[in-house]
Amino acid sequence: MNRKIGAHVSAAGGIDKAIERVAEIGGNCLQLFSGSPRVWAKMPLEKQPVAAFDSNREKYNVTPVFTHALYLVNLASDKEENIRKSFASLKYELEFDSLVKGSGIIVHLGSHQGRGWEASCAQIADHIDQLLSETPDNSTFLIENSAGQNGKIASDLEEIRWLFDELEKRNKLVSTGRLAWCFDTCHGFAAGYRLGDHTKIAKDEKSAIQAISDLNLWETLKVVHVNDSKDPFGSGRDRHDNIGDGTIPAEELKFFLNYEKLLDIPLILEVPGIDKEGPDAENIERLRKIATE
Ligand SMILES: [Zn+2]
Ligand SMILES: [Zn+2]
After folding, report:
1. How many Å lie between the centroid of ligand 1 and the Cα of residue 183?
2. What is the pLDDT of residues 92-120, one digit of tens each?
3. Residue 130: CB atoms within 10 Å
4. What are the residue ranges spanned by the domains of the chain?
5. Distance 189 CA to ligand 2 centre (A)
6. For 5-290, CATH number?
7. pLDDT of residue 2
8. How far is CA 236 from the centre of its chain?
9. pTM of the entire structure?
10. How far does residue 186's CA lie from ligand 2's centre (Å)?
11. How confident is the model over 110-156, as pLDDT tens digits?
12. Distance 269 CA to ligand 1 centre (A)
């Protein structure tokens, strides 16, 4: 029973505090923001309390650590200013990831805003390519699958496969470990992927496990966001619920999390919390009961 189970918690008061917060609710791995999630502005990297962070990490034995990029980021935007801000902010996150010896930054690629995947895929690849050429070799860019609403990129796992193939071809960014991905259970379910036993999926439905296998995406899967969904299967909507309180059937989530390929993958909660203050001890407890292996 030494699965990696943790949560996204606040880093208010300093990133070292996030370690204390996740340990307090019973987590042994972490996701955090490198600064305020609502603004583009960042604290200079040299002002981040990295020594306190490192010593807390050792004290509480919290690893791995993931950084979540800003939700404002949109690499598929057709607005020059938004791209410029997105690029600068992701560059900071990658440098931060290297500085805190993190295991990657988790990125929502953004929305093509109706222009379509075909019209935006090359642009997204260009930006990721350039970002990774300007940032430390030990920093990692993790693409998160989306629920798909409003033209959000990567609700279809084939889009992640395409980006991997394109960027491997250009600069070997996948085989060198710079580029990988994160699967979010709420987003996958909302995007029409069933999470249960892939051998028993209805013919007209997609299976997450089968799709990941068919697209050869297990090796590059570095983390799973475990969230229940407030909306029905295939809704395309991205509203997380507490574990067991949403629309994902309990047996589906259990099957998925105990699938052999997932046993060594860190599980991170991004749930609203019982008191609506974010991931809490109760949700960690519920997840520990499900992820039993
Ligand atoms: Zn997520
Ligand atoms: Zn979400």
Report:
1. 7
2. 999 999 999 999 999 999 999 999 999 99
3. 12
4. 5-290
5. 11
6. 3.20.20.150
7. 83
8. 17
9. 0.98
10. 7
11. 999 999 999 999 999 999 999 999 999 999 999 999 999 999 999 99
12. 8
